[in-house]
Structure of Phosphate transporter:
Amino acid sequence: MDPHSYTHIFVLGLIFAFADAYGIGANDVANSFATSVSSGSLTLGQACLIACFTEFSGAFFLGAKTADTIRSKIVSTSYFKNNPGLLMLGMMTAVLGSAVWVIFASSQGWPVSTTHSITGAVIGMGIAGYGTEAVNWGWKGLGQIIASWFISPIVSGIISAILFLLTKYLVLESEHSFERGLLSVPVFFFITIFVDLTYILVKGVPGSKVKDTPFIKVVWISALAALGVAILSYVFYSNWLRRKIRGKEDLKWYHIFVAPFLSKRPTIPEPSQLESNNSDIKSIKGVAQEDEPVDNSIFGKIKGYATKGIKVDVRNLENPKLADIHARAKKYSTETEYLFEFVQVLSACSASFAHGSNDVANAVGPIATIYQIWQTGAIPGSKSVVPAWLLAFCAIGIDIGLVTYGYHIMRSLGNNVTYTTPSRGFCAELGTSLTVVTASKIGLPVSTTHCITGAMVGVGLCNGDWRAVNWKMFAMCFFSWIITLPFAGLTSGLLFALIAYSPTK
């Protein structure tokens, strides 16, 4: 075949892949930062700003392995060996079908699985092209993916529950919770950095030889680096926290780096000013943001439209339907919870990094196949390298979707699953990142929606009251997961059949 005779499919594939990446960012933004915003550790705008960097980094540096799973292990590409152009068409309709469903679901505030969506779309295309035999139903294909849908929320929930129970009984319910909290913060720094750094080094930057380093050596390097950060956090950050919270000294975020050497600062006169002077995290404990003057100029209208997605209240703290659920969660010392705000931001970054590394595959997998066929005129092998520019292209789409449209899902989740505090949110996020990054390491495209939902339910059950969890919201999430695969599959399959089998004369 002359691959460049199908340039139009390649161009359309790029457009649809970007749209799918946009939908991924719009729908899955809540998976990484919903708990941070719900607990007040971050504003919605701050969460989006941070996520732009973490999502992009995870997608660019660790996204290639799961992209291979999406593009070659769901439908057997051998059926298309004699007609690579048909596979190009199939991947184009698959990514289009996925994008249509995910963006529609986001507009309705439904937290669906983008992994489900692209998996269903690829299956629908495969069945429309060559029947059910074209789909790899075994463990190495669809079976492994389906199993992950059930395993990931359970595993994530168990890990998060264990983390919170340890935090609850060793720190939060202690008579000396604040002092124990100061000691625990460096430990959590260590765990988070150790896990992320280990997997970054194991997988390595695309094209580098870092991933060939023996695993035991990688573990030692990561452990030493994480230990160094943990020691520094105790010497500087914990010291800063003690002086700011207990000493009520007027300290800014940049004083962290000189806290042990800084002379005593003026005290904050009123306890209520603690939050307003907290310039390092800028927590928002209320439910609404301050009104801003309306700018009716053209520039003001453009700015207002561009920033609309980061100026929405998504916390649901005054929702009367959730009052009973929130009341069943035990409240702990405000000072101790405050200790977890920054470390929760760190865990959210970890979860976002993991999300980018895993879910970028949903958009990159199909377009990578299209691009490689367009270049070579042949079906790419399973070991074909995913171009770095494609990873970056889709990562940018994720960031744009996150900033402009992600508030819909953030508002749907928020505190809707269970009452969220910094300590609870941290444990849920860390449990999610541990699950997703591990899945990314082994090439298993799990759903971050499943993981964070399972994690929040696991943490909510630690209240000792099953009614502290919004089971109606959980049921809605589960239902949306079920209908995603058939809807995306049907859309993709119908589009493929309509185009592939249309009359030519």
About this structure: The chain has two domains: 3-173+284-500, 174-283. Residues 271-291 have pLDDT under 50 and may be disordered. Residues 174-283 form one domain. The CA atoms of residues 182 and 238 lie 6 Å apart.
